[in-house]
Amino acid sequence: MGGDRKGRAGRAPVRATAYAVCGAVLLAGCASMPDSGDLRGVESTPRQDSQVRVFAMPPREGALPSEIVQGFLEALTSDDPTYATARQYLTKQASANWRPERSTTVLADGPGTEADREADREDGDDYSFTLTGTRVATLDEQSYTPSPGSYRQPVHLKRDRKTGQWRIDSPPPGVVMGQSDFQRNYVAVDKYYFASNGGQESGMPVAVADPVFVRERVNPMTQVVRSVLAGPTKWLRPVVRSSFPTGTALANGTTTLTPDDQNKLTVPLNANAARVGRGKCEEMAAQLLFTLQRLTPAVDEVELTSGNRHLCSLSEDRADAIAVRGSQKHPEYLYFLDGGGRLVRLASGTSGVKPDPVPGPLGEGAVQLGAVAVSRDEHEAAGVAADGGSLYVASLVSASSLDGSLVTSKGKTRQERLTTPSWDARGDLWVADRNPSGGGLFVLPDGSGKPLRVAVPGLDGTIRDVRVAADGVRIALVVEQGGKQSLVIGRIERTDTKDGGQPEVSVLELRSAGPELEEITAVSWAGDSRLVVVAREQGGVQQMRYVQVDGSTPEGPAPAALTGVKEIAAAEDDRVPLVAHSVDGIVRLPSGGQWEKVVKEGSAPVYPG
Question: How far apart are the C-alpha atoms of 499 and 520, rounded to whole Å?
């Protein structure tokens, strides 16, 4: 049990006359092992209940090189906190130099093994294998990165002349395992920091999710707290800050953090945090509280201490007053366009009632609209004309007239003009011009004035759709190149100019959020680090599914199937129903239910954002 390894037919099999190694076993049991035959693939361990622990078996006396490699690979999939058993398969020097915590390589079917029969002999003192497979992703700094490709990694063994025992003296760097073992061993967690480029108009800091993976059955709560204290991942680091003082760590001797029976977690910190003020301390507590709320067991309150001193406490019901988080914002209305291209709205979560036109010119039909976005405070709306050539902004809370177009596209067709716009928490408005001649990505600070062209180094193709995260530091782009589309996430950076004018804005380090997608019809943020997409995979049919911003596969089911989807809308608050524009009109998906009709005629449904 425990491995994803599959034999490679036609590649010189590794002969083994006996198997005393059990590899990773559940609890105290051990599956029987054959005592002859080729080194064969082992079926992956299925996802187990969170309380079931998987342990590894040490190498047996006189184990053959093939058994040593197999046992080592099995031990990598166990729940051993320090990989102590896996190290028993290594020479002393190799064990001292091996750093399993630095990286994890995820393979589609687990590592296969090829023996180098020509160069090595089992009756000698050296033996070599090559680990092979199809690489899916790598985990570095606990951060998941899709990296499809082939995997070949040599592994060398030496026989100790004194003991006669085989041991690995050149192991693979880090940990390697199959995808199903990875899903069993690791759990995704959003840790939280604050946007360093300012907050929303209220002046409160904006929380930004930084998705990481931790080993699910190896004290995950303590792992996550240590990860938060260590700081953001490399990709997010340039645009976020932590409220924890530099050098803050858990107090010496702290090995396990567990909430009490009231779901309160006390976190003892070292002396670096001893002098923080109350405001800063509550921001620190908010970072941990946001991070730990979805772990099991859940945490409802965080208390921070240093030495014998109580620093502060923060409960879930007070966290909203400390920082803004996208998934905390419950939209007041659902917005969409009626049959005449006017902007209308319904109270969020309702159906079967007649929608009302929004106040102001966009609800009065001053211009026929084809796409729309509503600011996150629901005070303004941006609309793109039905022909896609002009972008307008108008108030939703006071009488106003419709000023001239803020952005104009000269694309030849509707498909070569403006995308649906998108607002961030700062009140900035984003839109892309798909015109092959002179198009690009633009942002309008505060949703007004002259648009700023956004630099997107590394962009390969034309931006077809834009969705900015509530935090204002991450943006999802649908990019088309050569007839194929891809979903990428970029990091938004703002640099002040020397003359004090408008900052220069860039979207940097684009990374894939759906490497298997090639035709993307619609996309919307559906959580702090999750999107919902309507897309087709290579060789497949259109379907609706969730994707994580880091490109990993989210747990849980996809939304209920829906045919003929043209547009999709979700809120960061996952308690709010999904809404779609399909062949049946505007429909919504209540939690745990089936799609139901909201109105027959309508298009372009959106929640604020």
Answer: 41
**What local confidence, expressed as pLDDT, does residue 5 receive?**
37
Residue located via tokens 């760590």: 249
Q: Annotate 33-66 with DSSP letters as a single string.
A: --SSSB----PPPPPPPTT--EEEPPPPTT--HH
Work out whether the CA dihedral 291, 294, 297, 300 comes out positive or negative. positive
Q: What is the pLDDT of residues 182-219, one digit of tens each?
A: 999 999 999 999 999 765 556 789 999 999 999 999 99
Task: List 344's β-bridge partners, or say none.
Answer: 336, 357
What integer is the mean pLDDT of 262-271?
Answer: 97
pLDDT tens per residue, range 130-153: 999 999 999 997 899 999 999 999
Nearest-angstrom CA–CA distance, 353 and 598: 8
The SS3 of residue 512 is strand
3-state secondary structure of 101: helix
Count, in order, helices (H) and strands (E) of the chain: 8, 37
- Confidence band (pLDDT; 50, 70, 90) for 353? confident
pLDDT, tens digit (0-9, with 9 covering 90-100), for 367-405 = 999 999 999 999 999 999 999 999 999 999 877 888 889
Q: Hunting for tokens 């995979």 — which residue is that?
A: 537
The helix (H) or strand (E) run that includes residue 445 is none
Can you tell me the mean pLDDT for 237-252?
Answer: 97
Distance CA 415, CA 433 (A): 10
The closest alpha carbon to 156, from 115, 111, 99, 118, belongs to 115
φ and ψ at 447, to 5 degrees?
70, 25
DSSP-based three-state secondary structure for 183: helix
Q: Hey, how many other C-beta atoms are within 10 angstroms of the C-beta on 436?
A: 10
Query: What is the number of alpha carbons within 13 Å of residue 332 lying toward its C-beta?
Result: 7
- The crossing angle, in degrees rounded to 10, of helices 220-230 and 278-292 is 140
Alpha helices (H) in 449-531, listed in sequence order: none
**Dist. CA 142–CA 233, nearest whole Å:** 8
Nearest CA to 424 among 323, 506, 525? Answer: 525
Give the chain's mean pLDDT: 88
Average pLDDT for residues 45-62, to the nearest whole number?
Answer: 69
End-to-end alpha-carbon separation of the chain, Å? Answer: 47
Q: CA–CA separation, 326 vs 425, rounded Å? A: 9
60 residue type, one letter: R
CA 223 centroid distance within chain = 18
**Exposure string over 277-315, b if 16+ CB within 10 A, otherwise e:** eeebbbbbbbbbbbbbbebeeebbbbbbbbeeeebbbbe
Report phi then psi at 155, rounded to 5. -130, 125
CA distances from 14 to 71, 121, 274, 371, 465 (A): 14, 12, 58, 62, 51
> Are 430 and 476 a contacting pair, CB within 8 Å?
no
If DSSP states are collapsed to H, E and C, what string results for 203-269?
Answer: CCCEEEEEEEEEECCCCHHHHHHHHHHHCCCCCCHHHEECCCCCCCCECCCCCCCCCCCCCEEEEEE
Using only C-alpha atoms, the chain has a radius of gyration, in whole angstroms, of: 27
- pLDDT category at 19 given cuts 50, 70, 90 is very low
Place of tokens 């408005």: 429
Confidence of residue 441 (pLDDT cuts 50, 70, 90): very high
